[in-house]
What does this fold into?
Amino acid sequence: MPIDQAKPIHPVIASPEVVHYVCKRFGLHMSKKLGQNFLIRRSVVDTIVEAADLSETDQVLEIGPGIGTLTQGLAESGAQVKAVELDKRLPDILAHTLDGYTNVDIIQGDVLKVNLPDIMGHKPFKVVANLPYYITTPIVLSLLESHLPIERMVMMVQREVAERMIAGPGSKLYGALSVAIQYYTKPEIVLDVPPKAFLPAPEVTSAVIKCILRDRPPVDVLEEKRFFRVAKAAFAQRRKTFANSMRTTGLSKEAIAAILEEAGIDGQRRGETLLLEEMAQLANVWTKYEKEEA
Ligand code: SAM
It folds into this structure.
């Protein structure tokens, strides 16, 4: 390429030297409360960007850009990046660190409160984030339940949370989060990330998880809400039998017995042994039961 047409060369932000320099230069003290652990390993940024499979026609929602370590990798893919950051101090800093990247918009706000359909222009998008760990599950569940046109989510989470997302019946980690993730997506752990890849280093190991949104759920469900009520009940009282846990739904003992019998499920089992298919079967029998009762 002729030298006068070459793009500007930016320093890699995801490095200990640059993160230290930026924090010092702008007097930024990282906030523990906001889950600020910045990536200082560019190879991790590259793996995340690769897992997101980005091209110039893609739109990306980044949650919590921080000082732009991951945002830089996303911007270099050519995709249109919308980055939502809660910390009011950061947009001005990002204007410096990401100067020259014309495909990035920074939106200051809480990702749980901003108007995502408007921000994403009512078009399909991918979610990519090194998530703030104090709020991982609410963010993930609200994205899944929003039914927005999300194509995939590539997220840095605590390793244990990633394991919960992929866990199945029989595992101690199997819970309501596993059911929600597996109902809406196909999850896969792509990388383990040690604490020293961040500044400051968190106390736990992290992992990058890739969740490809499904075109259709893996089980047929008449009423999604009821399916998730069954899932919630299944894990509500882990030491009790499932028949007992189902009482948390407000159903009478007799109704539970009738529903379990018709669904062909032994009420003496523990809720955490139920497969997605069995929860769907139960929810569908319950839906029919309610209709008959009405
Ligand atoms: N992406 C940067 C990186 O990888 O170096 C920073 C990641 S840091 C783990 C999480 C970021 O999320 C922080 O910048 C924090 O301020 C931001 N954050 C925390 N809560 C948020 C919320 N509710 N909405 C949007 N951003 C949030």
About this structure: Residues 34-39, 63-66, 69-70, 84-87, 110-112, 130, 132, 135 surround S-adenosylmethionine (CB under 6 Å). The two ends are 73 Å apart (CA to CA). The longest strand covers residues 150-158.
